[in-house]
Design goal:
The protein is built from 15 helices and 17 strands. By secondary structure, it is α/β, with parallel strands linked by helices. The longest helix is centred in the middle third of the chain and has 22 residues. The two termini are about 30 Å apart. Bound molecules: ligand BES, manganese (II) ion and zinc ion.
Length: about 500
């Protein structure tokens, strides 16, 4: 969770502030501006002295601590690098550095000279607030020894800054943190029922939202044989969670967001090797992305219709588990040979995608899944792999990616690849040729379940946990990947 949950603005000039610590940004090669000089005078020249002694030149991320007076106790000057290279993503990471610095100083509140960080521009203000919030993220839920040092909780931003943009950044930051929390909980706590309960709680508090939860027991009757096959091995009850959000006109078709919610993936009978198997608690990060967006939507209320859908179960071995070679029938009637029970995510998604496609006729579908280890081989943990069947929708996703700094890279779903999943005994099989184009094989498999509806699949197996940079990423655990990207995407559409 985050400690920083309160951002306020003030029009007071710097010299009139009262604060534990004031943060000021300076670009490479730039001097103090006139209000900062006035502050320097009030503080007896302590800012200019430190700048001089330390030969400060505004280099990115360089931090200078100066002591002030009774009103402004400390000033921290932060290098912003070259103004040409300054971007919303740099502002986001500077924001997180500031909160981390405030935590080191053990202050619960601090101030920021907003205009010096470029926050007059609303998109910079939003990104900076996201950074401030995420910089205070920690997951200590299971540590019994509580830290007693004060943590950054409240920030005052001075200058002519749009409060709405800061608030939006805060809400989005909190929603990313929510996705991280869900992901970081271990599988013995965070079960499919837990996800269902959290979704219900958010939806129940909002008149424009309706949550329906389907039990694993119903899957077979509903015709979801692929999802049912995966859920068979687990004693922990499986759930399909659907939240309908009606923020737009009745006539407007919804956008559907679908998440893989494997609360633990042991591989099933095709059991995974022990090293890093603990990380398979993160196999529900796709559903965490969907729920992070759900939380953001519940507060920011965009004027658009959305279907949030999650397929959640464990993938376990056992005498009830499905076997390699089993043939199951998916919701859209296609038969699937399960060659490897560890390729379970695509089986679960197959049914949820087909269900959503048939019952809601969405205008567009985007799914999020920690689907293949192969995407790590291809892209490492710097970019999510994206694939789809519609160039226009793909462009929209890429545009939101560029705005938010959450990188994606497209892999092709050319028809030449489709033959790799042709089944020997059934229509299709759940894997392609071993070691070849694993991420694409999963993509062409999912493509079988969305008909011609514009659809993008995002493989987040490399990005959902692991990246430690930029600084707004957590030092350990889940990143809450794509919550920011998807919110931006929705906003561009409304
Ligand atoms: N959840 C895994 C993918 C994964 C692996 C995510 C490592 C993050 C890190 C997925 O269910 C899986 O096991 N995929 C298999 C597919 C294969 C059996 C065709 C894989 O990638 O090895
Ligand atoms: Mn698996
Ligand atoms: Zn999996």
């Amino acid at each position: 969770m985050v400690s920083l949950t309160d951002i306020k603005t003030t029009k007071k000039t710097l010299t009139n502030l009262e604060t534990e610590v004031l943060f000021i940004g300076i670009h490479k090669g730039k001097q103090l501006n006139s209000t900062e000089k006035a502050l320097d005078n009030v503080l007896g020249g302590s800012l200019s002295r430190v700048i001089d002694v330390e030969k400060f030149n505004g280099k990115e991320k360089k931090e200078l601590l100066c002591y002030g007076n009774d009103e402004i106790k400390r000033v921290v000057i932060i290098g912003l690098g070259e103004s040409k290279k300054y971007s919303t993503d740099v502002a986001r990471s500077i924001g997180s550095n500031i909160t981390r610095y405030a935590n080191l100083l053990m202050v619960s509140n601090f101030s920021v000279a907003g205009e010096s960080f470029g926050l007059k521009k609303n998109n910079y203000a939003q990104a900076f607030a996201e950074g401030l919030t995420l910089g205070s993220y920690e997951f200590n839920n299971y540590k019994t020894k509580k830290e007693e040092d004060p943590k950054a909780e409240f920030v005052l931003v001075s200058g002519n800054i749009n409060k709405k943009s800061l608030d939006k950044g805060l809400i989005i930051g909190l929603s990313v943190a929510f996705a991280r929390d869900l992901s970081n909980h271990p599988a013995n706590i965070l079960t499919p029922s837990y996800l269902a309960k959290e979704s219900k709680q958010i939806a129940d508090a909002h008149p424009a939202m309706e949550c329906t939860v389907f039990d694993g027991k119903e899957f077979k009757k509903m015709g979801m044989g692929a999802f049912h096959g995966v859920a068979m091995g687990a004693t922990e009850p499986a759930k399909m969670i659907i939240v309908e959000y009606n923020g737009g006109a009745k006539s407007q078709k919804p956008v559907a967001l679908v998440g893989k919610g494997l609360t633990f993936d042991s591989g099933g009978i095709s059991l995974k090797p022990p090293p890093k198997m603990d990380e398979m608690k993160f196999d529900m990060c796709g559903s965490a992305t969907v729920m992070g967006v759900l939380r953001a939507v519940s507060e920011l209320k965009p004027k658009i219709n959305i279907i949030f859908a999650i397929g959640s179960t464990e993938n376990m071995p056992g005498s009830n588990a499905q076997r390699p070679g089993d043939i199951v029938t998916a919701y859209n009637g296609k038969t699937i040979e399960v060659l490897n029970t560890d390729a379970e995510g695509r089986l679960v998604l197959a049914d949820v995608l087909a269900y959503v496609n048939k019952n809601y006729e969405p205008e567009a579908i985007i799914d999020f899944a920690t689907l293949t280890g192969a995407v790590l081989v291809a892209l490492g943990n710097r970019a999510s792999g994206v694939m789809g069947n519609n160039d226009k929708l793909m462009k929209e996703v890429k545009k939101a990616s560029e705005t938010t700094g959450e990188k994606v890279w497209e892999l092709p779903l050319w028809k030449e690849y489709c033959s790799s999943i042709k089944g020997k005994y059934a229509d299709i099989q759940n894997m392609g040729e071993a070691r070849l184009a694993g991420t694409i094989s999963a993509g062409v498999f999912l493509k079988e379940f969305v008909d011609d509806t514009p659809w993008v699949h995002m493989d987040i197996a490399g990005t959902a946990w692991g990246p430690k940079e930029p600084s707004y990423q957590p030092k350990v655990g889940a990143t809450g990947v794509a919550v920011r990207l998807v919110y931006q995407f929705l906003e561009n559409r409304k």
